[in-house]
Amino acid sequence: MIHWSPASGAWPTWGAIQQHWAKNGWETGKYGYPLDTENCYPLGGGTGCQQHFQGGVITWNQIAGAY
């Protein structure tokens, strides 16, 4: 999905990070709108991903899931 606001522009969300954002109220919840795209990186032999939102960061990894 692509989400847009005048303040943040248009950014996509997907997967576990999108599911966590949805559980927390989408753009009207504590995170607000996304500020960038999901970025993934190597993490201890696996993968970790983060996406920045107006109200904080949602992080995902293979062990903990999204938080």
Describe the structure.
The chain has 67 residues and is mainly beta. The chain has one domain (19-66). Helix content is 13%, strand content 43%. It is built from 1 helix and 6 strands, in the order ββαββββ. A 4-stranded antiparallel β-sheet has the order 3-4-5-6. It has a two-stranded antiparallel ribbon with strand order 1-2. The protein is globular, with a radius of gyration of 12 Å. The model has no long low-confidence stretch (mean pLDDT 97). InterPro entries: LGFP (IPR013207). Pfam families: LGFP (PF08310).
List the helices and strands and how they pair.
Layout: E1 2-5, E2 9-12, H1 15-23, E3 39-43, E4 46-53, E5 56-61, E6 65-66
Describe the structure concisely.
It holds the Pfam family LGFP. Helix content is 13%, strand content 43%.
What percent of residues adopt helix (DSSP H or I)?
10-25%
User: How many domain regions?
Assistant: 1
Spans of at least 5 consecutive residues whose pLDDT stays below 50 are none
Largest sheet: 4 strands, antiparallel
SS element count, helices: 1
Strand order of the largest sheet: 3-4-5-6
Tell me the β content: 35-45%
Structural category is mainly beta
| Rg estimate, integer Å | 12 Å
Instruction: Identify the overall geometry.
Output: globular
Distance between the termini: 19 Å
Number of strands: 6
Helix/strand order: EEHEEEE
Q: Give the integer mean of the pLDDT values.
A: 97
